[in-house]
Write a structure and sequence with these properties.
The chain is built from 21 helices and 27 strands. The protein is an alpha/beta fold and 743 residues long. A six-stranded mixed beta sheet has the order 11-16-15-14-12-13, sandwiched between helices. A five-stranded parallel beta sheet has the order 4-3-2-1-10. It binds 1-deoxynojirimycin.
Length: 743
């Protein structure tokens, strides 16, 4: 007995020592016992969390609330540290690497050198693919094919998981209406409903049906909330958002993602009308966690806790920490302020232990859901089995085909007859691989990308193909114009490939103008003087000002930044092998000065006047614009009834005939408008869309199942749904049906 007491004392001393040291140590008692609840795979997750939490010291808890970076991002915005500076107690690592062995080594450190063996959750920005890069998100939205986007996200999840990633900071579901903002490339355009649909699709794709599945990763909805309202399109800047606009424009895409089960949410860099998003109790706690009952956790954006000082709402690191944690930010990304200050804040009773426990429980809960406690290491497979698998490539190709938008096709210049004798492929984008990848292209490698020029060569085997670069993306060097003109002279059709470098969009990549640099515009101008047919191919991360280029071009195809497979789809559209079906998810303004312009602006006092006097009042290419090689004829819009009770549903339908001899796919967009309401609502609001293939000479009927509370109501400035009786319009194209909603 005496011996036992001595032994127990020794164990307590060892545990006590471990509790006191920062790094803790392995306790043989904790490691060997199968009986502790948190290690028991059979026990319910809530019980495991509770049990583990009960064993943790305050310091161990605080570590769980921190994420540090390891490795290097490709941009200068986020630079990580070295692993030996990282404690095995750390909650999460932004793992900027693609080696699963290294990840497993880091995990081993956590499992074996921390007292309780709590696994690390490894995160990375897998925005539109890991190694197989898919089109940028803005392009994905132009496919209007949520199923295909879900599939691409599922494949990106698989590719990430085998490299050791458990959690991606995606999707970005910020509604964005200013194309000068570099980050419009990362979201799904200007419309709340479209963002909501793709929010749900991508969460489902990444997370699958079960987070513990070996192919699933956790999603993160970002940047909560209103970051897309960045003033003047600058980054990291103030956002002016009324509560009304917050509720009807910026919150719906996040609510949709939360309802789809998104495991995490990232608090943004922006200041929401005086209360920064990372210190905003209303949005983070009252809306997200209380009203929507989101049980996942909130991670700050990179240094957004520390940045509360720059934003002028905290005078010190400690105060910034206090504001962020009490507002509802659970995990601190990168700036390590939670590590330095939370323990003291708890001891000073400024942060309650309950709040810390709640945050830690949320983090642990996800780790259990992902199965990290039971299977902390990833199975290392041979590299040829991990990346760029044929099914990934074919999905990337299919998605790219569907995202490209035929903006202009004068006199049906396209498709080019594949007997065209010769083509001149000219421009800085023509033989470029790197920039087709787009921003945030993770581990995408330019050498895996087929250029437009090479793809055109393979597509048009019977034609002579000439190539000249013509000029760089920017600068003043026009020395290459002469060669470009000589090459163009020899060809029947001139294909001009212009656009933006990938670094011109994404984070911290705003532009004061959405025109292409003069050196590119002038190249097209010079080529157009030859009087030959011109087809303009554009690869860019934002809508562009094409007011000078469009009149000089007979055909224009918007490729966006298509990822690893972009050349082949655009070559197929040129030849007619592929019939384009993409439609814009973001308006192309006539010029930069027209910004902001978006289809769902609120109604104005004088609808037909007040616009700029020096340019047209219309955008160059509006929301949902996109041409096809088929000729789709819309029949009459029909509704089963026009008087509707609030609890009744309604089916409205429209037949669409493919009156051509080319098979195609058409997207029907269903809008509603509310002519008189107690608040001023947008001119029209998208409520549903559907894409269907329509064989040549056949008709498909598209249906909209209207549910009054879902489709006709509005939210007030506190988020209450209100459904008023009276007149509503449902429209498709230029047809509308008037519905009378009864009391
Ligand atoms: C900052 C960006 O705003 C965010 O989108 C990204 O996920 C994080 N850095 C992590 O890299």
């Amino acid at each position: 007995m005496k011996k036992y007491i001595k032994y127990r004392k020794a164990i307590i001393a060892v545990i006590g020592f471990c509790l006191l040291t920062e790094f803790g140590c392995v306790s043989s008692e904790e490691k060997s016992s199968d009986l502790v609840v948190y290690k028991n795979q059979e026990a319910p997750i809530d019980d495991r969390v509770k049990d583990l939490l009960g064993r943790m010291t305050l310091e161990e808890k605080v570590y769980q609330l921190n994420q540090v970076a390891f490795g290097k991002h490709m941009t200068a915005n986020n630079i990580g540290g070295e692993m030996d500076k990282v404690s095995p107690l750390i909650g999460s690592i932004i793992y900027v690497n693609q080696d699963p062995n290294l990840r497993n080594d880091l995990q081993k450190k956590a499992m074996e050198q921390s007292r309780l063996g709590i696994p690390i959750i490894f995160a990375n920005d897998i925005i539109h693919g890991f190694k197989t890069i898919y089109p940028i998100s803005l392009a994905q939205a132009c496919s209007w094919n949520a199923e295909l986007v879900e599939q691409a996200c599922a494949m990106a999840a698989k590719e990430s998981k085998v490299s050791g990633i458990d959690w991606t900071f995606s999707p970005m579901v910020d509604v964005a209406r200013d194309p000068r903002w570099g980050r419009v490339a990362e979201g799904y355009g200007e419309d709340p409903y479209t963002n909501a649909v793709f929010s749900k699709a991508s969460v489902k794709g990444y997370q699958g049906n079960d987070l513990a599945d070996e192919n699933s990763i956790a999603a993160c909805l970002k940047h909560y909330v209103g970051y897309g309202a960045s003033e003047g399109g600058q980054d990291y800047i103030y956002t002016e958002i009324s509560n009304q606009t917050l509720w009807d424009t910026y919150l719906p895409s996040f609510e949709a993602g939360v309802n789809a089960g998104a495991a995490t949410v990232m608090s943004g860099f922006n200041d929401i009308s005086g209360v920064p998003a990372s210190a905003n109790h209303y949005t983070l706690t009252e809306i997200l966690k209380e009203k929507w009952e989101m049980d996942g956790f909130v991670v700050s954006d990179w240094n957004s806790v520390k940045q509360l000082i720059n934003q002028g709402v905290a005078s010190s690191d400690k105060e910034a920490t206090l504001k962020a944690i009490n507002a509802g930010v659970d995990m601190d990304m990168a700036d390590r302020l939670y590590l330095d200050h939370i323990s003291d804040l708890v001891k000073e009773n400024k942060v309650s232990l309950n709040r810390v426990d709640d945050a830690v429980s949320r983090v642990l809960n996800l780790k259990f859901q992902l199965g990290l406690f039971d299977k902390p290491y990833v199975t290392v497979t041979p590299e040829y089995n991990r990346y760029l698998l044929p099914e990934y490539i074919s999905t990337a190709e299919k998605l790219a085909e569907e995202t490209m938008v035929l903006l202009k096709n004068s006199d049906n210049i396209l498709p080019l007859n594949n007997k065209v004798s010769s083509l001149a492929v000219i421009g800085p984008m023509a033989n470029n691989q790197e920039d087709l990848l787009g921003s945030w292209s993770a581990y995408g490698d330019a050498k895996d990308v087929e250029s437009i020029y090479k793809a055109i060569e393979s597509e048009f085997v019977q034609s002579k193909i000439f190539y000249a670069r013509g000029c760089d993306f920017d600068g003043n060097d026009s020395a290459g114009y002469t060669e470009a003109i000589n090459v163009a002279r020899k060809a029947e059709v001139v294909v001009v490939c212009l656009g933006e470098k990938k670094s011109w969009s994404g984070e911290n990549a705003s532009r004061s103008t959405i025109s292409l640099p003069k050196i590119q515009e002038d190249l097209l101008l010079k080529l157009s003087e030859l009087g030959k047919p011109i087809v303009l191919l554009l690869s860019n991360g934002r809508p562009l000002d094409l007011s000078r280029l469009a009149p000089l071009s007979d055909g224009i195809i918007e490729l966006w930044q298509p990822g690893v497979v972009g050349g082949k789809p655009v070559a197929g559209i040129l030849s007619g092998r592929i019939n384009p079906s993409g439609k814009l998810a973001m308006t192309f303004p006539f010029s930069t000065g027209q910004v902001p312009i978006y289809y769902n602006m609120r109604k104005k006092a004088r609808p037909t006047s007040g616009m700029y006097q020096d340019i047209t009042k219309e955008p160059l290419y509006g929301f949902t614009h996109g041409l096809s090689y088929s000729n789709f004829k819309y029949g009459d819009l029909k509704s089963s009834k026009t008087n509707l009770r609030k609890d009744e549903n309604l089916i409205i339908e429209i037949p669409v005939t493919n009156a051509s001899d080319v098979d195609g796919a058409e997207v029907v967009h269903w809008f509603i408008s509310d002519p008189v309401c107690s608040i001023s609502r947008p001119i029209k609001e998208l409520k549903f869309f559907e894409k269907k293939s329509i064989k040549a000479g056949t008709t498909e009927v598209f249906e909209f199942h209207l549910n009054p509370i879902r489709d006709l109501s509005f939210v007030d400035s506190s988020g209450n749904k209100i459904l008023e009786s009276g007149e509503y319009h449902v429209s498709v194209g230029n047809q509308k049906i008037v519905i009378n909603l009864l009391d």
